[in-house]
Fold:
Amino acid sequence: MKGIILAGGSGTRLYPVTQGISKQLMPIYDKPMIFYPLSTLIQAGITEILIITTPEDSQNFTRLLGDGAHLGISLSYAVQDQPLGLAHAFIIGADFVGDDSVALVLGDNIFHGITFDELDDVDGGLVFAYEVSDPQRYGVVEFDASGHALSIEEKPTHPLSSYAVVGLYFYDNTVLDIAQNISPSQRGELEITAINEEYLRRGKLQVRKLSPGNVWLDTGTFDSMSEAAAYVEVLQKRTGQVIGSPEVAAFEHGLISAAQLSQLAQPYMKSGYGVLLEKVAAGDKD
Structure:
């Protein structure tokens, strides 16, 4: 399975800050925002990843993450010239995906506590739903009495449930053809909801409800970024866990050794992030 991180967009909800820097390069507590979705893909066992950015920010992402070799993974980069929708990522990344299945994660979404099982055997599509208080902001899933998905509607005025589709999607290779054949929405974008609706029409969409113990944070506004940073800070200080660290994810999945993790920690010692990495390398999580 290949992975795609969509880290484009203009970040208008974060102006004026994002007029000078990509949203996904801004900090969520002690690490850049993009570290979090990158670690999610690594935790899902994905080691070949394409990062889609804007033309202005491409070099900054490359300078931050390189080719991924230091993490035991392979990182590639592509450019989205205009914000043409989430589903546009599968058109941009078609050659990268090739004949494989693919996961898409949004560059401003943070996940914690989700376990990934049998992803290589995805037959159709797999998405996750999370109960929210403001479903009008998201793609919303309607379920029947047995918990099976009946419909998905993008940003509905009158939501049929309080379950939002989160920014993490797993598809078989059919998604490439589906993306090529959907039509732009009224706002001129290729919507991910259109892809999910097509899989649902074919009877090939699994919708897995996340439990209250799982965490999904959408960090697209100043308030949500602040809340996410507070969550990461409190959890790391109380538990000793390192949240959203691609270095730790790579170590835990056997992609790098303890010695390599310790080496990666050294440039970050003054910031404190390196101290956390060093503790994990030493097997000390207290």
In short: Residues 222-239 form the longest helix (18 residues).
